[in-house]
Write a sequence for this structure.
């Protein structure tokens, strides 16, 4: 069987990238072939180095006004694109080149607390501010709008009246690390089924 290739887009610390890299480290059938980032200072770059995964940095102009990233990913024969703390909207041509092959993780229960500007701590602050009694994670396919693609998986955690945004963030991160690698694997296996049809 051909090795499946994953590429990951990340802008931040990269803790989810690390969990995904750990999960697939012993797998001969799956390779994380590249990490793409818009942030030269992102913690994910050091983590990628530790796992010997190449990193490609790009800027806003290169991402939105050229097709360099899309054509590179097409040339590389990428099977699945994983967003793990990537904060920019995916350009339309990139989404269209990889239908149902881009997955994102969002740190709340979509459709609540999604959309432009809803990322990282802003999400948890909004959840606490709204007096929610639960939060969680949503793993979904990516379409042309922020956080609106088809939901693949959700998991919840309680929000206690005494929880602040940091407390919610910690609970949500536990869920992300527990589930994202496994769900990415499941999406990959489903791609294999589609190939066999
Ligand atoms: C994660 O909580 C992820 O859900 C969130 O960024 C964090 C990245 O953490 N993504 C978004 O908010 C996207 N809208 P990490 O860099 O430690 O993996």
């Amino acid at each position: 069987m051909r090795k499946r290739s994953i590429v990951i887009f990340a802008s931040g610390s990269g803790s989810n990238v690390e969990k995904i890299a750990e999960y697939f480290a012993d797998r001969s059938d799956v390779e994380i072939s590249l990490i793409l980032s818009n942030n030269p200072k992102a913690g994910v770059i050091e983590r990628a180095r530790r796992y010997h995964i190449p990193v490609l940095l790009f800027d806003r102009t290169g991402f939105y006004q050229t097709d360099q990233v899309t054509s590179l990913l097409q040339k590389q024969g990428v099977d699945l694109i994983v967003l793990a703390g990537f904060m920019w909207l995916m350009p339309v041509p990139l989404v269209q080149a990889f239908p149902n092959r881009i997955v994102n993780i969002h740190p709340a229960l979509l459709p609540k607390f999604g959309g432009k500007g809803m990322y990282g701590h802003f999400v948890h602050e909004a959840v606490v501010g709204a007096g929610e009694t639960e939060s969680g994670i949503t793993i979904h396919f990516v379409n042309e709008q922020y956080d609106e693609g088809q939901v693949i998986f959700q998991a919840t955690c309680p929000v206690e009246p005494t929880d602040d945004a940091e407390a919610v963030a910690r609970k949500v991160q536990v869920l992300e690390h527990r589930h994202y690698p496994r769900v990415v694997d499941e999406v990959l296996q489903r791609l294999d089924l589609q190939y066999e049809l």
